[in-house]
């Protein structure tokens, strides 16, 4: 069996979706914190730059705030 590995930059996709939504990192973080996340702006910056992984809980919040399907985060 062969496996197909696709290079997907989750962090870059989060950044692109956030920018298309017209939100700054600070604005997205503020909305996330209202919903219970303790993520900081620097953590989001590191996730978007691919230097840090994201928690499933935080990805779920970002999905809800940006109102996009999960598939958008995993497109190459």
UniProtKB/TrEMBL annotation:
Pfam families xrefs: HTH_3
Q: Which CDD domains match?
A: HTH_XRE (cd00093)
Give the residue spans that cross the bilayer.
none
- Which InterPro entries does UniProt cross-reference here? Cro/C1-type_HTH (IPR001387), Lambda_DNA-bd_dom_sf (IPR010982)
Q: Which domain of life is it from?
A: Bacteria
Ranges for domain HTH cro/C1-type come to: 14-73
State the Gene Ontology terms under molecular function: DNA binding
User: Could you identify this protein by its name?
Assistant: XRE family transcriptional regulator
